Amino acid sequence: MKEITLVALAHVVAAIDARLEKKDRVREEVLVLSRKVVQYASKAIRAVHRQELEEADALLHEADSLVQRIAELTSSYPDILFAGYAQDAQKEYAEAHLTRAFVTGGRLPTPEELGVEDAPYLNALGEAASELRRAILDRIRGGNRLEEAEEWLHTMEEVYSLLQTVDYPHAITNNLRRTTDALRAVLERTRGDVTTAVRQQALQRALVNLERQLRQD
Question: What's the domain count of the chain?
């Protein structure tokens, strides 16, 4: 009886070993794909800020297929899907899409359309709003596109207000509170920069008008 039990147990362990080996291969592939997604997303965001939208779209297209592949691989392994690296990849991927939509005024994709989980999407939303600071500063330096900068500032404020309403434990939201707090800090600095720029522009216009009046007199 003992030998029969041990033989049966050996079969059980062998079966488990085979399943774990398969799972480990999936984990390794997902890890590699996740890194690539993060790289594509980062490059896409930089391309958006450079206003190189064709390049950004090409990079996002590459990332799209990788995210889909990750979803396929992890369909039977939710613990791998919810591992840190896979969630980070989803966040960076969603951030790139959301940043493009914010900067270009396009429609914001939903979590379902992107194929990402809710927590990565919300964190991506906060980080994409923070990315608007760079776009705003570019417009301020341009000197003649402050209206666009003010619109983006309003978008940042709206996103911050929305994220404040999501109040769940860190384990549920992937520490969304930290992302929201970071956005608040960026928002406050950006609001100050925009306010200063608007006042300077108003002062310059007043000086120009005064100079014209003096010439006429």
Answer: 2
Same domain membership, residue 108 and residue 5:
yes
Over residues 25-42, the mean pLDDT reads 96
Nearest CA to 110 among 119, 99, 102, 98? 98
What CATH number has the domain bearing residue 84?
1.20.58.2140
- Cα torsion through 58, 59, 65, 71, rounded to 10: -150
Is the separation of the CB atoms in 66 and 73 below 8 Å? Answer: no
Single pTM value for the model: 0.87
Q: CB atoms < 10 A from the CB of 61, how many? A: 11
The answer on 9 and 60 residing in a single domain is yes
How many CB atoms neighbour CB 60 within 10 A?
21
Q: How far apart are CA 161 and CA 155, in angstroms?
A: 10
Give the residue numbers spanning the domain of 163: 117-217
**Is residue 193 scored above 60 in pLDDT?**
yes
What is the C-alpha to C-alpha distance for residues 173 and 118, in angstroms, rounded to an integer? 8
